[in-house]
Amino acid sequence: MLGRERRGSAAAGPTVEERVLEVTAAMQGTLSFKDPVNLRISGRFDGALETLGTLTIGERAQVSAQITGETIVIAGRVSGKIVAKRQLTLVPPAKVTADLWTPRLAVQDGAMLEGACHMSAATEAAPASPVLSVEEVAQYLELEPAAVRQWAAQGRIPATRDGAGWRFDKSRLDEWIASERARARE
After folding, report:
1. Positions of CATH 1.10.1660 in the chain
2. How many CB atoms lie within 10 A of CB 122?
3. What are phi and psi of 139, to 5 degrees?
4. Does the pLDDT at position 12 exceed 50?
5. Which pTM does this prediction carry?
6. Contacts of 77 (CB under 8 A, 6+ apart)
7. How far apart are CA 77 and CA 102, in angstroms?
8. How many whole angstroms from its chain centre is CA 178?
9. What is the pLDDT of residue 3?
10. CATH 1.20.1730 given to domain 131-185
């Protein structure tokens, strides 16, 4: 279910629209979000998951995945690898068997965690983000490769010179996309 929720009240200030996506079915594959979205998984998910915003894994959820997100809250069963760039919170009856990378971890009484936890310089210690070629970035951004090369040479897009070519860190590219969209909305 994809929807928009209105948050706020007259006393609190202007109403803010929030994107919410809830997955209640069994899914397999890769989910990657370019824009911030609050995602809630209540069903079964197997694969890879990359989110911006808040990811909530509900009490009845069963997830086996490589998960990367900003803020992650887990109440269900999760196995795999988890990278929470801001915070990871485990709430009962969470049962997590995973290696974790996060700068902030909260495990509430009744939640279970088994695995390695990496917290010092968590974002630097996290597994490296994929490195993309000019052609992959062109496909990802739906541009011509020549435009990607030109933007890289002009410093308009985050890129690293690699000999005569360019390399693009996917996580830096995603952050740049989010900031450009936010700037366009202003």
Report:
1. 131-185
2. 20
3. -65, -45
4. no
5. 0.59
6. 61, 62, 63, 94, 95, 96
7. 19
8. 12
9. 42
10. no
